[in-house]
Amino acid sequence: MELLIGLISGAVGGNAAGGIMKNLSLGTLGNTIAGVVGGGLGGQILSMVTGGGMADMAAGATEMAGGMDVGSIIGQVASGGVGGGVLLAVVGMVKKMMAK
């Protein structure tokens, strides 16, 4: 579930970044693809940096409580959105530099 949240929020973050940074935009499809990849990577990197402890604790608490942990979901949305935006910016800059 966390990966799916990261991928969706990455797609949204990639398209938002493409809308804000018009000079780095890759088009709707390119922004979405870069965002999905960046969102997936962003979520995975966050779980590695936090040692997976927060995600494991949240998963254990979720299983016991029978619901989703709001803090975990917000963290995944934020990391996915930021990861998608950052990867879009990097790919956009590389594309722009190669065009010169």
Keywords summarizing the entry:
mainly alpha
Describe the structure.
There is one protein chain. The protein has one domain (2-99). It starts with a helix and ends with a helix. It has helices spanning 2-20, 27-49, 53-65, 70-99. It has 100 residues and is an all-alpha fold. The model has no long low-confidence stretch (mean pLDDT 84). The longest helix has 30 residues, at 70-99. The protein has four helices and no strands.
- Tally of helical segments: 4
N-to-C SSE series? HHHH
State the secondary-structure class.
Answer: mainly alpha
Proportion of residues in helical segments: over 70%
If you average the pLDDT, what whole number results? 84
- Give the CA-CA distance, first to last residue: 41 Å
Cα gyration radius (Å): 15 Å
Using the alpha-carbon principal axes, give the shape.
elongated
Largest sheet: none
- Total domain units: 1
Oligomer: single chain
Strand tally, please?
A: 0
Low-pLDDT ranges? none
